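Subject: Interface between my chains keeps coming out wrong

I've been trying for a while to get a sensible model of this assembly. When I model each chain on its own everything looks fine, but I need the whole thing in one frame so I can look at the contacts. Pasting all components below, labels as-is. Any help appreciated, I'm running out of ideas.
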Amino acid sequence: MAGNSFGEIFRITTFGESHGKAIGVVIDGCPSGLTIDAGLIQHELDRRKPGQSAITTQRKESDTFEILSGVFEGKTVGSPIAVVIKNEDQKSDDYAHLKDAYRPSHADYTYEMKYGIRDHRGGGRSSARETAARVIAGAFAKQFIQHSGIEISAYVSAVGNLRLGKNYNELDLSKTDDNIVRCPDADIAEKMIALIQDTRAKGDTVGGVITCVIKGCPTGLGEPVFDKLHADLGKAMLSINAVHGFEYGSGFAGTQKYGSENNDAFYATSDNRIETKTNSSGGIQGGISNGMDIYFNVAFKPVATIMQSQTSVDKEGNEIELKGKGRHDPCVVPRAVPIVEAMAALVIADHLLRNRTIQL
Amino acid sequence: MAGNSFGEIFRITTFGESHGKAIGVVIDGCPSGLTIDAGLIQHELDRRKPGQSAITTQRKESDTFEILSGVFEGKTVGSPIAVVIKNEDQKSDDYAHLKDAYRPSHADYTYEMKYGIRDHRGGGRSSARETAARVIAGAFAKQFIQHSGIEISAYVSAVGNLRLGKNYNELDLSKTDDNIVRCPDADIAEKMIALIQDTRAKGDTVGGVITCVIKGCPTGLGEPVFDKLHADLGKAMLSINAVHGFEYGSGFAGTQKYGSENNDAFYATSDNRIETKTNSSGGIQGGISNGMDIYFNVAFKPVATIMQSQTSVDKEGNEIELKGKGRHDPCVVPRAVPIVEAMAALVIADHLLRNRTIQL
Amino acid sequence: MAGNSFGEIFRITTFGESHGKAIGVVIDGCPSGLTIDAGLIQHELDRRKPGQSAITTQRKESDTFEILSGVFEGKTVGSPIAVVIKNEDQKSDDYAHLKDAYRPSHADYTYEMKYGIRDHRGGGRSSARETAARVIAGAFAKQFIQHSGIEISAYVSAVGNLRLGKNYNELDLSKTDDNIVRCPDADIAEKMIALIQDTRAKGDTVGGVITCVIKGCPTGLGEPVFDKLHADLGKAMLSINAVHGFEYGSGFAGTQKYGSENNDAFYATSDNRIETKTNSSGGIQGGISNGMDIYFNVAFKPVATIMQSQTSVDKEGNEIELKGKGRHDPCVVPRAVPIVEAMAALVIADHLLRNRTIQL
Amino acid sequence: MAGNSFGEIFRITTFGESHGKAIGVVIDGCPSGLTIDAGLIQHELDRRKPGQSAITTQRKESDTFEILSGVFEGKTVGSPIAVVIKNEDQKSDDYAHLKDAYRPSHADYTYEMKYGIRDHRGGGRSSARETAARVIAGAFAKQFIQHSGIEISAYVSAVGNLRLGKNYNELDLSKTDDNIVRCPDADIAEKMIALIQDTRAKGDTVGGVITCVIKGCPTGLGEPVFDKLHADLGKAMLSINAVHGFEYGSGFAGTQKYGSENNDAFYATSDNRIETKTNSSGGIQGGISNGMDIYFNVAFKPVATIMQSQTSVDKEGNEIELKGKGRHDPCVVPRAVPIVEAMAALVIADHLLRNRTIQL
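Reply #2:
Try treating it as a single job with all components included. I did that and got this:
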């Protein structure tokens, strides 16, 4: 109800403010008997963490997690899994000047209106630091869905007006992490990095697009009416900070097509599996996975905090001038790749479990 | 869990197959004391119904609704509101030849895989007829949110490659229903109608885009983390048949922008309300409404049923040839306008009620 | 949220007022592929219906149900199952004099306070007629759980101060429906019937107790902390009109025992199954079924409507005198037996499905 | 779904095993702007904690809590409130001999059957230590409902066959904590204490009853059909370890009454409030609070761990002999008083918030 939980059966609840004592997550409904590799969790956190490369914020955050419950002798036991990350060395004083200010395109104003009170330090609950909790939960979900042979791969497909211009199946997705922008095409990656560095030099920020591919998903996932698989994926992505759009399969481009162009013809493979010749459906038909690759795009707006002077107002409506201090991301998409994967994994894990209850 | 319900407090559950005895909806959580205008419900259903114009399917469906409960002497009493529409004169025999066939880009195959059993007549539960139940529920939601001064207006902004090319605030949205394609710009509307008729003549179908605007929404709606207002709107739209994309505010175009271009500066109006000079945020910041207009685009793929011959397979994997029979929509967007509005109204109604529980 | 739904996966939503157009239920989450015997549904409804014997109300209600959706060619297809019963020949005028009156120990006053508006005819939504919808849903649940070999048997174990005085395993539960009071001991049944007839002759009503036994329940049902199996059974029973108490296993009597008396020792059967020698635990340990019989008692207060004159107040607080008119039950327990079974079946069905999602 | 959450709007999720790193709770949906008194939380924890008196277990547990999020400068901010208690100095080795044993009337066997894996140390997740998390959450709920003038008082009304024998309104409930057994009648309390000490001397345990009274509850709380206020209270109580029964108002005794005895006549007070002359209804009619005192009884079985030798089986079905080691409670009710109050407070807090959404 208060919006801090996600999923029906594989269900997570995140908590924590940017500059409070800790952030964390409770995962309820993770099946028992799953062997947990703590190294994989840390690996995912490291892909998300600030200060990881020349094109991210240089801020350092403690991203050392601690599992408090639900895992015994390396395996899940079916009880809720609580994981926390302590917040260390937060420079809360850096934010004192923002106590009464509403930063443009941030959540300061809307939180104040909604709650009548606000932890202004570093954005409080609205900080993207909350996504670290999602990445932890997603690492559990990934380990669960791998038992069903499902693999999720996201990558940066656009930064500003630089578009990758290739379909996912023309790319070698194992190369995504070979460069710091997380674009599997080395040539475009280099240009993207240059664009981000140039943007930072101007004290500005820039948007981008992440594409995500889910391979090995069995048929039958997704509920047919409101909880269509793509509707839940869409909500998952739109719940990530800065996301302003989602499309799957033929997406917005498909609106310009004719049915005769867009339809996916079924055929039987030589080993008598049923597949489609094309995949405008993005692996989902009637809201339910059909066994083909699932793929979708996620649109990120440019980061709101810029190093240029902007006008705004304070609580009393007085005009003020603001200028970003400290260390911020010039472009969020390189660090958002593991977040997109985590949210996708959570959706798939949940629907895998939901699908166990369908037939007699 | 089984995906036939939507909303947390203002919660609906739809039921019914295309060619079963009836379809319907139960609305639970509609506040008591609301005067219901049955004429408004019928008006919305009429905007959605088949056979309404030269560019929709010529199929006739009974769209006469009956309220079974929850309304007493014209007012809601706080108990669940059940509404049904009987299915009459369904030509189920028309579908006998599809019993074992998987139509391309339909849900036949995925339903069979998921449930192991399928009501093949007219798509069964996957039929767009289910959206009539949403329109009824949305008509209740609209009447509720109008008490808070909120108005929702959707319109067709693209058909195939014909784009409207104007922002919503350059249009007179009261003119949307003046033409059969539901585009408020008469010139473009004429071209869209011609394109649809041309498409139908070729036995084909074409996609399109619907834009929706929500005016008068108070600040504070939306929950900050997973149930962001735009995430719930996105899920609502993506749950509509044939939708493949959603974007709000600056959307996909905003990914190409710099922060300095995209940010919305706050200022105080002469009567000391706080507003933003621009509205890239689409009326939502940090997932919470900020009092500005909310607007978003919804991408519809072309209808899957075409009057041209297509190859497919049957249950056994044998290659078959299929050709659409009967009467189908060449383009779904004109009839989808009230569905988009209904789903938006349901999201707003739910968040209005959720927001009553936030502060001490 | 508004309290008209029950269950997490096997989830029902009931609707309808006593004197509205219809009552009904939507069952969402019933697994696909279940063969439905309509005769069994009618049989359960007939056990609940008014006018069935000399000791129930002589009121006649239409209890002819119609399945609107979710069942195709005799089998469930996985979509929501909507079932309605039309309300016929309601004598709404009988209730005109109650429009502004608050009947003692009824819900008139509390509904008025909660909603600010009330359908006063026959108790509206608070009428026990709503339980017919539960019995229908329970009949689906019973058919589902029989596939797992689970059988539910309830019977009347007390009427007023007449107690049956035998444990369930000293009784032949197949004889419950052999008499009109639904007590499997013929001698006590006769006395109970006489007590009820005597009570009715005095224009009064009397309370009673129903005992319910669930046999064949597999180990592992129930969630360990808040959704303990007995907690969900308890809520289910307490949600039935007129129920004021619930106890399972050793119950209230067990509070007087020592641990050494109350504990159930485990042993291995000759075919190496693990059982307990005694069953104070009532088949549930730590909230989870242990494979032994589950049994519990449900306390029903005397029916509030009596044929004697009572004082009360109207909306304005004026003192009024009320006397029951028409035809009412002198004791609710004989007709409540199928309701208790229905609610138990719904809980077990739901937990059977929930339990499918627990292990890797 | 996995049963570790409770409440719809004021919703808690508890986590943690008895001998893991920590236990804790996330409270989501606590309204913003509530001033939190940490001393009150500690006070409630101290009432529950082991080792508090001569008649409880002498085990020492760390019950020092830490608030990780959701409270800023002493006030709730509307974000989830995470609170943890570290587990210190657990003697896990004490439990090594129980790794493969199923203790009688414990949850060892059912957890093993359900999950296929088990943290056997101190009962793991099934330990009553989990209730400390509920007491913390309840302390937040109490502070919230006090703003509406609601007060909750529980006390011990029976230990073994020693019954208090007085109605709550014949007692001075402010004296409950004056003695270590938490019975407000000093004479009976003394006898209860003697009975518990005698029971412990025999290496045995004994059951008991807690009565709870809620004063100042406004009219209108509770949802009418499945989420009746007493049904939610019943479930809350039945979810507490060792509880086997719940009754409210006239309860089981009321089943022996006639309607003419049991009905509560309405009257208007001199200041024109509507009240009832008697209160068999226990302050709830039709599932909704009527403004009178709410009261109910909760039945606790004797603690399963006794200091006498018992036979049982191990995983392989071999007969074993077990004898309780270490320090355990001879009677749970004195320490369960704050747990009953906490669960009652959580139910009332949730329904207070739910009730805000009912009327137009």
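Reply #3:
Confirming on my end. Residues 220 and 359 of chain A are 11 Å apart (CA to CA).
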